[in-house]
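Same chain as my last thread, 440 residues:
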Amino acid sequence: MFEELSTRLEGVFRTLRGRGKLTEASVEEALKEVRRALLEADVNFRVVKDFIARVSEEALGHKVLTSITPGQQVVGIVHRELVTLLGAESPTLELSGSPAVIMLVGLQGSGKTTTCAKLALHLRKSGRKPVLVGADVYRPAAKDQLAQLADSLDLPSYTSDADPVSIAQQAVARAPRENWDTVLVDTAGRLHIDDELMQELERIRDVVKPVETLYVADAMSGQEAVHVAESFHSRLGVTGIIFAKIDGDARGGAALSIRAVTGIPIKFLGTGEKPSNFEPFHADRLASRILGMGDVVTLVEKAQEAVDGQEAEKLARKLRKEAFTFEDFLTQLHQLKKMGSLSDILGMLPGMGGGKLKGLEVDDRSLVRIEAMIQSMTPHERQHPDVLNGSRRKRIARGSGSTIQDVNRFLKQFVAMQKMARQMASGKLPHGMKLGIPGL
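reply #2:
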């Protein structure tokens, strides 16, 4: 979403950092470009005006202009102000009550039902016992969709043929008997100008008394998401925002504006279609991504979730014994895929933002092809790559839908990886040698 904005800002800051000394005129010129980039990214114009004013006040100070690295100082100021704009406080989800009731609201098509399932999965990972409650009686098959999502994630769900208020009330009453400690109420999407349906939400709120009322905002809807959030907040007292679909190609202005305009904290981000593509919102991390600084903390967290500790120890022992096989590589591929797409992973590395991946072919299908090649090998071949003669390679190519050239290229890359692994294990990795992913 923020790729275009990141590219523009990276260009401005590259120019600033390239100058040994900054003048007020050069800083003001750079901030004009920053202002233009933010406005073109669909950030609310009042938010941009206040943001630039705060940055300008700090950046034009004597301390910055006379420092050894003035360009870097300006980047640091922009980063701090961006964090403030997005909400510097750490996101927290209120889970008091027995059960804790969370109500999800928003427009039709904003992604509430999918987001409800993602939030439930996130809560279960942290030790909670959530239930998904289908209170959308208007959209055809909405309750069936929620039940199917719950089944696919091995989560409980509840609904009935009653009206939405009664469904929510029944679920809360049933929670203690079923040992559910968190009730997630998926409400029907509605226009904020539809007074009758908004009154229904108010009745649900008054009956179940949610500890959180979360507005699910479609990040693709632009500034309209900001105006709608204000309307929902005035009627329901929204306690937090979940931005869905931030992996889309919208300009990102709504995400940068909504906290400043409404005062409602952003609590979660939906980062993709998979149930696991969901993460708590951290203003400093998103600001770093936008400014091309990467997000190593989130990358490490994803790795900790995806990587099995025992498997990692086992692999470390094999590396020390110089016994890295195709079987080990296949295990690593599976764990890498759990972390998300290659472009997402690379985008979290410092210096890889700001559109720097545009000229780089990042094709997740290459990993699928490699996986197919390994799975076309016999168990003996996976453990002993040296037995792969011409006829075996032809069989692997046919079995994986690849060409013999693809197989040969992969085997050559794997041999290089084995050599690198041996050198890493012995502490003799040549200076300047970089780790690579075959197929990338």
